[in-house]
Amino acid sequence: MSVLESERVGTDADAPGRTARTAATPRQRSQRNWFILFVLPAVLLYALVLIGPTVFSIGVSLFQWNGLTPPEWRGLRNYEILFRDPVFLRSLVNTLVILFVGGAVIFVVGFFFAAFIRTMRGRNFIRSALFFPFIASPIALSIVWGVLFQYRGIVNTLLGELGIEPLEWLSSENIFKMAVTGTIWVSAGLYLTILLAGIDQIPPMYYEVAELEGASAFQRFRYVTLPLSWDVASVAAILWTIEALKLFDFLFAFGGATTTMPPVEIWNSSLFVYGQTFGDQVPAYRFGYASASAVLMLLLFGVIVVLLRRILRREPIEL
Amino acid sequence: MSTQNTAGAPRRAIRRSTPGRLFGWLPRTVIWLFVGFNLVVLAITLLSSVKTTKDIFAAPLGLPTTWEWGNWSTAWSNSGFAVGALNSLIVVGSASIAVVVIAAPAAYALSRMRVRWAKQLSTAFVLGIGIPPHIIIIPLFIEFSQLGLINSKLGLIIVYTGVSLPFAVFLLTGFMAAVPKEIEEAASLDGAGPIATLVRIFLPTVRNGLLTVFIITAVSLWNEVLIALTFVQSNDNFTLGLSLMSLLSAIQYSGADYGLLFAGVGIMLVPMLLLFILLRRFVIEGMTLGVGK
Amino acid sequence: MKRSMARGAATAAALSLLLAGCSASPSSDGSSGSASDELTYWSMLTVDEPEVPILTAVFDEFEAETGIKVNVQWQGRDVLQKVMAGMTTGNVPDLTDQDNNRLQGLLANNGAARDLSGLYERTVQGEDVTIGELVGDKYDPLTKGEDGAYFMLPFTLQPYVWWYNGANVPSLTEGAPSDWAGMNALLAELKAEGRAPLALDADHTDYDRAMVATAIVRAVGPGKLLEAVEDPTGEAWDTPEMREAVDLFVDWAEQGFYAKGYDSSKWPAIQTEWAQNKADLLFLGGWTPNETRGYAADDMAYRAFNFPAVEEGGDTAVPVALNGFAIPTKAKNPEAAEQFLAFLYAKDPMSRLTTETLSLTVRSDIEVPADLQDIRDIVDQNAIYGVNDQVPAVVPNFDTTVFQPATQALVTGRLTTDEFIERMKTEQKQYWELNG
Question: Which positions fall inside the ABC transmembrane type-1 domain (chain B) (predicted)?
């Protein structure tokens, strides 16, 4: 993620660090004091709520601990077991499917839609309507998603009016696909919006020139839209990575009743952590093991973000 | 535009190609279908909230045979949504304001002040966006128990503020960095100190950014369940999300009253829907400016 | 952590100045109360459930009688997670309730449940009988911990039985099947009449596993399923008895005995259909009448029969879950909590709960409504054992990640007997290698 920042910070200050070290003028010292004052509340709260607990969890991942009795040292054994645990591996695969397959659909559809919505009538209305699932509670959406697609649900009822036999959308073979589809539905609007606004920043002049040169719709997309909204897209891709790895509420409420875990078919890494700690009927409280899996996901997140930045980096396009 | 971008496009006469039109017709239909789907879902949700369970499944898109306005009042008074709404308003409102108030000066300092560690600190904040709530919830619970902040609205406000900060700082840093240097220089020539520069120059300039951060924080906290589930113990501190979970479990254990459930969903949805309709320009554009800059 | 805690305090102080006006609401946990003028009860119910108004009335009567106020929080089914969370800080209720599996797995096994032996000796309010005499020793195997101390007081019983509507399947009221051959014949007969013989919400894997586990226990005997599960080699699954039980479900799925869409609905869709006479038999716990009567057909007459023995004269013990009360060891007012229970177990409040919420209680001397008469008789005439042979209580993680998914695949017809046995052997062996 640090690469993200390089564009943002120090755009006008080449090497502030070095200047400060050689000679701290009174002005610089005063600026440093103001700096500390401004960032201190955020830093303190950040440390209290996020950093402290994360460090604590990294430590706990080396122990066997149920939260009640004293922790037992395990070293890296939790991590070793994780890589042999079929439930974890399945959760990991599911997470990656949601991330990459879901992500591919969201971005392909997003770009595709965005390129067309740009010139459509009622575009503001379209934008708002597509954005709607983002503001609704994922729990509520997953309830609706279930009511829509269950055997005697609303979709099958409507299909019935067309004379189509009811389909088994939610059978255990299909339920993960439906969960991924639901996730795409819920998330697509946000990324579409971001991409669309990125495309909006492209001066119309370029499209005019492209049309004058006889470029087809696809060519306009390939040679104007795509390169000129690439930066926005890559930030959106990183946001999606975050959301996909954290995804919990929708899957949790979609898969099960409120007091039971959803079936393991749809577990992702977040549900795995929950299942290993609070989720079960008689909760497992395996905090060490669960923390180890969470630490792995945090590492994976770092790796994916770095890779994404590598892949998505392009020659800067001068406008 | 650089020549490389059009290098592959053969020069042709100026005309709109027929395939292009065909190509345009299909996607537009698909887009409207997608829009239609979302509107139908919204309509089903709101209509179902004034129907009986039987009506919901007999005619999902039809008007109710009897208008069950009682669903809303039952959810509101019997199922604790009134208390939940008030608590959510207090907790989410306070946390969202706190996020803006704390993140704005930090983002300003990180993006505009030439100080050692600024860059590393920004990176550290961005990393925080990726920390999943599950990894922090257990230690956080222990920590907050010792501070006596479990089962209190204040405790929940602090946690909510903390978890929302990284993204807020990230987004606002983008807005602050985009403010032209000339404006800042003019202010410092006037002899304005950092606080005056921040308050009089930057905050008004990035007004939309502040609003965006506020709304995005509010929306995601309004719908948050996992942290609330762990940190709230007594019914009088329930948030709306917890009321909905509680209702969902109750209808599963004592009869499937989907009308009541949808009324609960509606109570949770409508405030955000109104907020969004009123301020959607800021959310949509702000999100982009913040991310895209 | 220490440093961040100090910072935390500073931040908290800063924030509370910032957010003046919405400071922490005073705790309603009654932790400051003197010895026994109040008690805190965290309930497994949520505020919308039918028991709530009745219990609320009992609280008021109790307060009028003794001056002790009951501070109740309707926490819902996750109540024990909250109790456990409070253990580290001492913020626990004086009284809580859940089923025997959870109370044992979470409270008793962690030494967090008070020994209720004294409570069993206590006389019920206004009656000449002790609580222990009322409850009897029938449930002791499920309510006593390894140390022989009572960790819970059972309150309501949930026997798992085959439910049917007496008006919908009148032939059954004259005699239910007593062995598996009879059961299969009944199902085939119903199917031949063009009906859907079996209702099952297969997405609720808890229910799939309960049905399969019951058949297995019938075949191998109570206690033996748990033994099989605890076998680290997994070989214990490969026996003729196990195979016979598994065959039953392979057969049922093949014959298409289940209601349409049982594999692709969201619970409680299929049980709703059952209640509306669209399917005939439902294997579920004693809560069924209470849970389904809101949407049941007008002619619904709740009837039930015990899961048949494999062969005439075989084992017929009833799989039972108990809901009941426990007092955390860290409770501040345990005496008041016991006093309340002695009040609650009196005939009058128990009768009200039985009739108004259709709950079968441990007081077998209370007259039950017709809807509960069958399960009252089934429980009184047979031995009992812990439903699912206690597997979810003893190895919850195995139950969720191995056993339940396998039983779901079995009842939805995606496994043959060999495949099921093989899957259990392999996955169980793997499980114990990783978690042994």
Answer: 85-279
